[in-house]
Amino acid sequence: SPVEQAEYTWQSPSNIALVKYWGKKGDQLPANASLSFTLSQCVTTTTVIFGKRGSDRQNLQLFLDGEEQKAFGQKAFSFLDKIRGFQPFLQDYHIQIHTKNSFPHSSGIASSASGMSALALCCMSLEKELNGNVDSDFFYEKASFLARIGSGSASRSVYSKFAMWGQHHEYANGSDLYAIQVPEKEVHKDFHTFRDTILLIDQGKKSVSSTVGHSLLDKHPFRDERYQTANNNITELKHILEKGDIEAFGNLVEQEALMLHALMMSGPESFILMKPNTLAVIEKVRNWRTETGTQLFFTLDAGANVHLLYPESAEPIVLEFIQNELIVYCEDKNYICDNVGEGPQQ
Ligand code: PMV
Fold first, then answer.
1. Domain extents for the chain?
2. Is the ipTM above a cut-off of 0.90?
3. Ranges 78-87, 113-122, 203-212, 326-335: which has the least confidence
4. What is the mean pLDDT of the chain?
5. Which of the four, 5, 15, 146, 267, has the lowest number of CB atoms within 10 Å?
6. Which helix (H) or strand (E) holds 95?
7. Any idea which fold 5-186 has?
8. CB atoms within 10 A of CB 212
9. Measured in angstroms, how far is the CA atom of residue 322 from the centroid of ligand 1?
10. What pLDDT sits at residue 207?
């Protein structure tokens, strides 16, 4: 039966990559496999109202925090255009999107992973209502597939805990077209409660879009080495996660973060995405780790903010360290306490 009017709400989290996706092959396909964990506090909440249309022109509207966004809406609309081939029924509806983020708009935290996954899930909810019995595995796999078309990293946000995206010999079900969840039994319990405290070093706009960033790899002199290293790191990380080897985990994620930034610095067009305070934090973290033996590590996205990763057991001492030593490097003393999360919620 045709659905005349429907409204769906999804809250979907951001995720933090441990092995980074940086470089594409072809259209929205990853040059190497990536692996992340899903966050819990950094979320986008999106409501989509679908209204059946007649022969009139399709009406698309996007509201961010209650205010209509013409320019920002373009990104969502071009996304809906691209997925229409996989969800032809979308063209029969007027689409009104209401979205909000839990994190400040200009925090330097990319909202594309949480935003695109939330939107993809709303579109899947309509598909489910139209088609009846859609099983749960198919639902999330296709949501990931659609989200990937909007933003590669968004493909990993539809699952709880750890997710990986891209073909890889260690993961038989892995695909370039959608992400899969890393089976929970393959992740040591210490990683299920891992913390990510995000220090907001620079809340300005990103100096390089990820589209430009990915394309820089095409002509990068270290390109092939990078893709090989990333795929090797997936193999290594898989075993680290199984064993619960936190030291090896920290070593690997820091290497990945710095390699991402080193690639951006040394490419045909050079970008330095760290700020002086990013480096100051890294130095403090490494010194404090050596002095205290605390398992505190960092990773970075394509920006200046620092993600501090540590086991739950270290939380009290790490939060004290942040308060006493690191908060001076945060813009307006801002940081966000997050952790491995349970995935999207309806
Ligand atoms: O999803 P995109 O195209 O915005 O790329 C994200 C790239 C990184 O955040 C830097 C790494 C990753 O794997 O999430």
1. 5-186, 195-339
2. yes
3. 203-212
4. 95
5. 5
6. strand 93-101
7. Ribosomal Protein S5; domain 2 (3.30.230)
8. 13
9. 26
10. 73
